[in-house]
Amino acid sequence: MKFFFKSFLFVILLISIIQKTYAQCFQIESILADACDTAPGGIDEGFNEMVRFKVGATAINTSNMSVNWPANSWTGLIQNATTTTKVDQLNAQITAAGGCGQIIQPTGGVLPANAKVVLVTSQNFNVALNYFGAITENIYILFQNNPTQTNGHFGNYNATPAARTLIINFGTCFDSVTYQRSLLININGTFGGGSALENGATVNFTPSGTATYVNNGCVAPVEVSTIDAGNATANACQGSTINLSGVAQNLQIGSQTTWSASSGTFSDVNSLTSSYTLNSATTGSVTLTLSGINKCGVTISDSIIVNINNSITPDFVLPSSICAGSAVPTLNGTSPNGVIGTWSPNSVSSSSTNTYIFTPTINTCANSFPYTITVTNSITPDFATTLNLCSGQTAPNLDFTSPNGIVGSWTPNTISNTVSGNYVFTPNTNQCASSITKVVTINAIITPDFATTLNLCSGQNTPNLDLTSPNGIVGTWLPNVISNTASGSYIFTPTSNPCAGSITKVVTINAIITPDFATTLNLCSGQNTPN
Length: 531
Known about the structure:
The protein is built from 3 helices and 34 strands. It is mainly beta and 531 residues long. The model is unreliable at 1-23 (pLDDT under 50).
């Protein structure tokens, strides 16, 4: 059993080697599997499909040529006035595109050695739908004699996998290639999407038969000198940088591609993947052109129109400073002029100075917006916070500016000289100042309760003048010593209590009076005595 299995593998390998050796007289290189047609739905796709192959080192005669299409029968070749007209139309198209190659029908059915050949599935193919472009070498063309079969010869995209095999046989040699229909891609490089997107699906093959899936749209599967700068239009901001991704194929050997524009700068004018920086003052649009020299020695180019969006600056209105501990402003995600973005940090601190950076996320042409908010420590107005007044005393005015410069208002705004109370000073806004309260105390008038009169006899010892009244009032007397010889007034002036009044003590010095009784009396013994 092992011997049989090994023998089987050997036979398969040998057949593969023989087939590739047998095919060396020509090589299938490309299939346009999903051709374009004049209307969606594949009305005449069967007229427009193509296969490209290359003849080997020996010329091939097409008289014995046959094709096993994946879907339809081979109906032989045709070369007549109709095909000649098609070839003439193609060559006019090629010349207009700047090509120097030609489409040639074989003479006597012979394909020369090393010829590149395109096989078209019908003489009724649509020249306008099968653009050959600026080819730079001669290509031979064969037409299948197919005046009526409009159904496709290959299998177009289907999500269900299924292999499709094409075999071309010239009698003395043949070649075959196989592709997977579920791998055919649309013009966007993805899968499916309907006929309009799927048209142009092409499969390229290496000499070993490895398939590569591409889609270049409604063009023939031929190699041309091409320049592709990228998408036809782009949008960018003033002063911004955009990355370029050009493609150049089959240019003249030694030729370099070159980027050019009327303004701005390229990081490398000769690199296909250069970057381009717009001038910050440029408005409107600017055209970027990628140029190169094809194999015909002709300069070919492709352009991108860059539409320039003017820069916009978010117009947030924020305070430049706030008071420590105060309410903080909200950092909105949309500016008044409509720019959407994010803040970092995303909330304002009421304790420390910070710079907050707004980064736009929707409008890519909006500038970032850095904003610094300074946090100022609170200042206390340095008014005296207490005031003592005597009842009825003239009250001072309440100043509206503190000694340290804080401006504000008082409530109440006038001091009463009859009733104690609190007076609140409220600073005006934007001064980072705190309120204070002034406590005003109204003290009643107090009279020292010294005796206000004093009678003394002339020469009598005088009392000291106390410096503190019985009700606690401290002060001084003038004069400060009572005379015992002369009447007079002594004024007490309080010194410890501003709400205590002065008093006057009146001291009267009375002269010494001697009683004027008879100082002697003589009586007889037993005589009645006088009262």
